[in-house]
Amino acid sequence: MKISIVGTGYVGLVSGTCFADVGITVTCVDVNEKKINALKKGIIPIYEPGLETMVHNNIEKGRLLFTTSLKEAIEQSEVVFIAVGTPPDEDGSADLKYVLDVARQIGKHMDHYMVIVTKSTVPIGTAKKVKAAITDELEKRGVELDFDVASNPEFLKEGNAIQDFLKPDRIVVGTESEKAQKMMSRLYKPFLLNGHPIIFMDIPSAEMTKYAANAMLATKISFINDMANLCEIVGADISSVRDGIGSDSRIGNKFIYAGAGYGGSCFPKDVKAVIKTAADYGYKLRVLQAVEDVNDAQKHVLVSKIKEHFGSNLSQMTFALWGLSFKPKTDDMREAPALVIIDELIKMGASIKAYDPVAMDEAKRILGDKIFYGDDPYDVLIDADALVVITEWPEFRIPNFKVIDKLVKNKVIFDGRNIYDPNEMVENGFSYYSIGRKARH
Ligand code: NAD
User: Fold this and answer.
1) Rounded distance between C-alpha atoms, residue 282 and residue 249, angstroms
2) Where in the sequence is the domain holding 349, given as residue range(s)?
3) Largest CB tally within 10 Å, which of 150, 159, 404, 440?
4) So where does NAD(+) get bound (predicted)?
């Protein structure tokens, strides 16, 4: 079986590599020539655990190919996935220009029956637009060709993307023809072993499922953060509350960790996009509006605690930041809480020294020389006034507190992810601020 994946980012590269790994010949297409040239040499543009080895293996076996020519890629493909970015437009809606550009390119070059699948996260109605764009191009060429569109939203999580793709909680596919459904069943068969389900539905429901899933996850985070803030006010501890509610099987304990707010390339933009879709249809998604408002405010909570301790004038002060990526095990800094925190601290006159296990290059690209970059977690503590933990990387979980004590000027830690035990902090002589738990001194 031969397929193409258009867009070689987090989703396109992981999906393409995993399909290649089960024996399918996959051609990955991207307009970014630098990226494609690097990939041809086995240089991976993103950090994703396990991906590099898998890419190398499949390149060697000749099953994973890279090109900038969509025409060449789709020549023998039975299925073409569109996995390009859908960034937020100015009004919050998903910008479909890349998706529709690919659709037009497909229409310009296709010469046999194919299933064209949107894997990008796209608003309800996009598959119809993709179909119309392809039909338009075929008509311009005076060519009559049978083809199908399908929607196959991707649920992988950065940092665990390969496992999520190989062992999915579910695969959702929206189709409108039996032929397309059969092809998608065949393609995903190797991933269904051990009871991983594939759920077929109509196309608008598949498109909606992705937004509903991300909206639900974002809601869980904003809910627990809102509760955490109330816990601090009333003198409760969000970690105990989480244990208490999480043991209820109707609630569950996953994805209800209080913190410095959600970021990343998906939740912020998808929440905005579904709010906008609802508004376009004259409906107000009140819960999601609140989810977004709570999250915007949550990114500032850690800085409020820093102000509470040191006051508003932070000139002459230096903060050591641990973690820059929006979550552990990724170098992705899109919409990362770290960016908001850094911006605010700098505005208040502070200097920043930061360390992240994998996001340093990405941080340099975004922030340039606005901050100082350390070589390891302890390096950034030298002459810093306090430690601020923003991303819960495993290597930050059991640090050497004696070394921290020696290096930082003030024995104070601001923990944006609740990774330390408040009692242990007090025993070690630190002032300790976390989220949804009262400050300890
Ligand atoms: P990305 O920005 O990492 O990659 C997109 C790629 O598409 C880029 O390499 C870009 O050069 C390429 N591209 C743009 N226009 C193109 C064109 N005309 N032809 C060929 N290539 C083109 O994006 P991503 O994070 O992989 O996300 C892709 C889609 O998947 C988005 O809709 C996103 O919401 C969705 N998604 C992302 C994740 C995630 O964790 N990143 C998870 C699930 C779904």
Assistant:
1) 36
2) 299-433
3) 150
4) 30, 35, 86, 121, 158, 269, 334
Specify the number of domains making up the chain.
Answer: 3
Closest CA to 256 of 289, 292, 219: 219
- As annotated, the binding site includes 30, 35, 86, 121, 155-158, 210, 255-259, 263, 269, 327, 334
Q: Torsion-angle region of residue 41: left (phi > 0), alpha (psi -120 to 50) or beta?
A: alpha
Q: Degrees (nearest 5) of the Cα angle 265, 266, 270?
A: 130
pLDDT score, position 210: 97
pLDDT value at position 209?
Answer: 98
Give the CATH number for residue 252. Answer: 3.40.50.720
438, part of any domain = no
Q: 11, 28, 81: which to mutate for ligand 1, most atoms within 8 A of CB?
A: 11
* In-domain check, residue 387: yes
For atom 44 of ligand 1, which residue has the closest CA? 154
Instruction: From 66, 102, 164, 265, give the residue whose CB has the most ligand 1 atoms within 8 Å, as the site to mutate.
Output: 265
- pLDDT at res. 421: 97
Q: Domain check: are 269 and 220 in the same one?
A: yes
Token pair listed for 36: 């494609």
- Residue the block writes with tokens 């002589």: 429
- Of 145, 178, 201, the one marking the end of a domain is 201
- Do 20 and 1 meet the contact criterion of CB atoms below 8 Å apart? no
Residues 358, 235, single domain; the answer is no
Residue 381: name the closest of 359, 358, 355 by CA. Answer: 355
Decide if 130 is inside a domain: yes
Q: Furthest-apart CA pair in the chain: how many Å?
A: 78
